[in-house]
């Protein structure tokens, strides 16, 4: 008779083991909440710092001051008008004339987090390209001809249904389960939009959003200030493949999943790394062509660092790009040839009509005054769990008597015992 441990192991093998994993930030990651912090309302700034005050802290502060609460309700409100500004979060960064900050997504505990949907969406893009590339040229053309929607948001639906499943029950991504990853810290980063200025892809400028022009001087360009996960920080999640849905004979015949698409986690890891290194090589080529005003050498160096990391990964690690900054091609899988890309560009008015290179812009994170990072690259390490926080034992001689502590902070007069 099988032991309890053996039964548990058998069940895990049948249903799919939930694998703990860490998520390490390799380049600054921004996942927007859709909210923009406003100067004077959500933050104040000096020449070299920014002080953000959360709405929760602000409300708690205003509850204790009816006059300031009334001014807030009437709309005549500025953070600088407070008698005491709540602690909030201070960053040592100069944001110049910028009056908005892009907020990072936060969970119910107020912690920044990477939603499972962001991770799953990035992986779905890779699987979509893998399955599309496996089709013959005629099959690819027939499939792309079925894209008839006039709304670009729905353009990929026929392709997704054909390659991943024609409804939510039969969608291949149902097999993959990923959980949110919570993080502890955020930074503020300055991001500029680099834009090509000639059709050869050799010169560029920095976007001035207010004038729709480009400038060679980044100090004169529009800057986006965003809360980001800083390089090196780790969060923890888990990932699993539902082996029951994937291998059970009845489920398999009903769902009709392709056996060669999602064999196991190791197969998935290999496909992700292959895709990521192809994307990075293309990005490197894009930046190496730039000669004027000067090559973005630090950006190229950081791309090389990412490529080197992929080539030296352990068997349980993979690197991918998520969320903001990955661009239209990154979100769709970059599986269109030039002819079809041009067709869809005309149909959905993507990019400048007379500009042959698409996309022609990149979001670049600056370090001080130098352009340095692409956004959104992370490393996932399987079977990596969050370290337990060790609480050190305090000896009795180090413990403080609560009454003695009160005496030190307040004037406490002991009552004399009656004789």
Automatic annotation (TrEMBL):
<dbReference type="InterPro" id="IPR010173">
    <property type="entry name" value="CRISPR-assoc_Csm5"/>
</dbReference>
<dbReference type="GO" id="GO:0003723">
    <property type="term" value="F:RNA binding"/>
</dbReference>
<comment type="similarity">
    <text>Belongs to the CRISPR-associated Csm5 family.</text>
</comment>
<feature type="domain" description="CRISPR type III-associated protein">
    <location>
        <begin position="23"/>
        <end position="324"/>
    </location>
</feature>
<dbReference type="Pfam" id="PF03787">
    <property type="entry name" value="RAMPs"/>
</dbReference>
<protein>
    <recommendedName>
        <fullName>CRISPR system Cms protein Csm5</fullName>
    </recommendedName>
</protein>
<keyword id="KW-0051">Antiviral defense</keyword>
<comment type="function">
    <text>This subunit might be involved in maturation of a crRNA intermediate to its mature form.</text>
</comment>
<keyword id="KW-0694">RNA-binding</keyword>
<dbReference type="InterPro" id="IPR005537">
    <property type="entry name" value="RAMP_III_fam"/>
</dbReference>
<dbReference type="GO" id="GO:0051607">
    <property type="term" value="P:defense response to virus"/>
</dbReference>
